[in-house]
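To whoever is on call:

I kicked off a structure prediction for a single chain this morning and the downstream step that reads the tokens threw a length-mismatch warning. I double-checked the sequence; it's 231 residues and nothing unusual in it as far as I can see. Pasting both halves so you can look.
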Amino acid sequence: MPTAALLTIPALRAIVEQTLDAKVFYQDEFERSCRPTWDIAIPARELRLPDLIQAAGIALDVQKEQVSQLKEALAAGGRGAWAIVRRAKPNGGEWYLTLICDGFGEVHGRSDGWTDVPTFAAVVDRMVGMEVYRFRHVVETERTRAACAAALASLQLKVGTRLHNVRVAGTTYSSALVQSIHDESGSVTLHLTKRGSAKRYEATVPATRLTGEPSQHRGPNVIVNGAVRAA
């Protein structure tokens, strides 16, 4: 996930929030919306370090040590310091690993999808794309948890509460018993029953996906051998 420093940059958070509010769903469109702000707020200035050439058949531990040393050098170069690891393939051609410093303590490495010698622009595109993706995920998670907390408060649920006519994942159950409440995730574990069926179900769902009216039954409800009964 993004570093704490990246998450606290107001301009980046603002554009991610705005793009979410605009209901932009597909990630490529989401990234295009955020990219201009990213380039202004945290520009990547190219600092090219010499390529690391690794011969075919070089020992794995040697490969790792050489790459580790290169990463250390890149980390000291600031955002945009980058290099290419070039490794000869046994049957000819080269395999590429790109490394680029994000300026926040992480060196991004990508080896997938390079069919030709990578360019700085392409490497930055991948780095920023991952940053936007991770930032979006963090903000979406924050929003989901806030919405779940609000739903929990609105429903006034507690362990032992019975709900009637509960709809979960498109299926309506005649009743549901709250077995546990997970405040951190905003989810609820339920024991569910269908009218006329002896079968019992269990589901853990976000509170935002749960609708129902608490029963006014006086006593707590308990589960005995998988069946619901009133204590």
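Update from on-call: the warning came from a stale cache, not from the record. Cleared it. Sanity check on the structure: Residues 4-149 form one domain.
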